[in-house]
Amino acid sequence: MAYVAGVDSSTQSCKVVVRDADTGAVVRTGRAPHPDGTEVAPAAWWDALRAAIADAGGLADVAAISVGGQQHGMVVLDADGRVIRDALLWNDTRSAGAARELIAEFGAAELARRTGSVPVASFTATKLRWLRDAEPENAARVAAVALPHDWLSWRLRGYGPADEGPLGPDLTELATDRSDASGTSYWDPATGGHDHELLIAALGHDATLPRIVGPGEAMGETVEQEGIPAGIVVGPGAGDNAAAALGLGARSGDVVVSIGTSGTVFAVTDAPIADETGTVAGFADASGLFLPLVATLNAARVLDRTAALLGVDHAGLGELALAAEPGSGGLVLQPYFEGERTPNLPDATATLFGMTLASTTRENLARAAIEGMLCGLADGLDAVRRLGVSASRVLLVGGAAANPAVSRIAAEVFDAPVEVPEPGEYVALGATVQAAWVLTGARPEWRPATLARPTAATVPLIREQYAARAGA
Ligand SMILES: Nc1ncnc2c1ncn2[C@@H]1O[C@H](COP(=O)(O)OP(=O)(O)O)[C@@H](O)[C@H]1O
Ligand SMILES: O=C(CO)[C@@H](O)[C@H](O)COP(=O)(O)O
């Protein structure tokens, strides 16, 4: 009996799942929080990873591990392997102008052709361009650029600055996988390799980029460090959405909707896409296929903030929402609290429409928050469908999917059957799939059971009034 571990180093927390590599049974889990903010010291992720590993009972009996992580975050290293400045995360919008500049220089169609996507502020290349212009001294020191999962895997394998990593700062040992590389805007889906010309255009000079490790291939193994035993095989890791697709065993006809800090809508496809409008990102998946994806900046935290405003917990928010009629009495929340990525409105703020003395109730506000957040994702579902993706069912995952009101209202908003898989950390579970794949040489076929199939009928009014009031 061998155990494998999977990590989800996500925006708000780090989660670790340990699983039996033969049966797929989850044997133990752990988690630790990440700091708030869109700019984070990577050392905090490393501390949280070791805390989450300890919370999961350690890795003494684990044979292989793989790390899934939030996509796009800019981790810049100097020649000594030191982090030059705090990482800018996917939800940091300061590089919106840099994104516009890169599009003006290359053209949206050319960038879509070369990288699969048209960049917005989330993408790593735009953050490097921002660094070049706003912090030229920091930019000049950049010797290597990594993503959160690449950097954590490097640290797990013992690399780091001389006083932190037992094996020292060998930047050529940085490694990533194609799913995470595809979110940089300097990765080429046609060759599967990095496009250094685009990196240079963004940063102003060339730098070491992580080697791209294929599905089922090991990056290396761990060395003895505080809380980490030696000799654990380290799998390729993945961007969190690609890892979730693996954890769910998503197949043709499945569209995954994840409601975490980000809202994402994605599917696994055989062929790459190149959407010149920039609505759908042409990412790669973690199995050698592709992962067209729409992401929003405003998802679970819309509900967190609304619940706090109403003085209730998540369950209370759900109860209030289900006490209101579909359509929330005409109250419509356009939930752009953090600006928005899809549609690309980085400076937008949220707006509540349709307030009358009759409509402005606690129940309607709770429901309008859930409806508004889901309408943005339903627009995303339409966008991936327009590119030829079929949706025979919507798999609802992420922290907020646990809320019965969210799944019920999702069934009213989406015009496809909604299924909620049994509760699980699907990103970390996907990383365990990678770890087991590396260990055994074969991709395990682990699929979750279904927890719920909400039967509510689609209520077109919800999207109609959202489009009329809040359609961007
Ligand atoms: N029952 C619930 N209803 C609504 N939101 C929830 C519920 N449980 C957790 N959340 C929210 O889900 C988010 C965490 O989800 P998760 O998918 O782990 O996010 P991330 O991967 O971005 O860190 C938090 O904002 C949390 O408050
Ligand atoms: O930017 C994207 C996808 O392109 C986000 O999905 C991030 O990958 C962060 O995910 P969560 O922490 O919200 O799961």
Walkthrough of the structure:
It comes from Protaetiibacter mangrovi. GO terms for molecular function: D-xylulokinase activity. This is Xylulose kinase. Residues 3-247 form the Carbohydrate kinase FGGY N-terminal domain. Residues 256-437 form the Carbohydrate kinase FGGY C-terminal domain. By secondary structure, the chain is of the alpha/beta class. Helices cover 34% and strands 20% of the residues. It has helices at residues 42-55, 96-106, 108-115, 124-134, 136-140, 148-156, 178-181, 196-203, 240-248, 300-310, 314-322, 362-386, 404-413, 426-440, 460-470, and strands at residues 3-9, 13-20, 26-33, 39-40, 62-69, 75-77, 87-88, 144-146, 175-177, 187-188, 193-194, 211-213, 220-221, 233-234, 238-239, 254-259, 263-266, 281-284, 290-296, 332-334, 351-353, 393-397, 418-421, 450-452. Strands 1, 2, 3, 5, 13, 14 and 15 form a seven-stranded mixed sheet that branches. Strands 18-19-17-16-22-23-24 form a seven-stranded mixed sheet, sandwiched between helices. Strand 18 and strand 19 form a beta hairpin. Helix 1 (42-55) crosses helix 6 (148-156). It starts with a strand and ends with a helix. The relative contact order is 0.14. The mean pLDDT is 97. Bound molecules: adenosine-5'-diphosphate and 5-O-phosphono-D-xylulose. Adenosine-5'-diphosphate binds at residues 10-13, 260-261, 300-301, 303-304, 314, 398-400, 402-403.
Question: What does the secondary structure layout of this molecule look like, with pairings?
Answer:
Elements: E1 3-9, E2 13-20, E3 26-33, E4 39-40, H1 42-55, E5 62-69, E6 75-77, E7 87-88, H2 96-106, H3 108-115, H4 124-134, H5 136-140, E8 144-146, H6 148-156, E9 175-177, H7 178-181, E10 187-188, E11 193-194, H8 196-203, E12 211-213, E13 220-221, E14 233-234, E15 238-239, H9 240-248, E16 254-259, E17 263-266, E18 281-284, E19 290-296, H10 300-310, H11 314-322, E20 332-334, E21 351-353, H12 362-386, E22 393-397, H13 404-413, E23 418-421, H14 426-440, E24 450-452, H15 460-470
Parallel strand pairs: 1-5, 5-14, 5-15, 9-12, 16-22, 22-23
Antiparallel strand pairs: 1-2, 2-3, 4-7, 6-8, 10-11, 13-14, 16-17, 17-19, 18-19, 20-21, 23-24
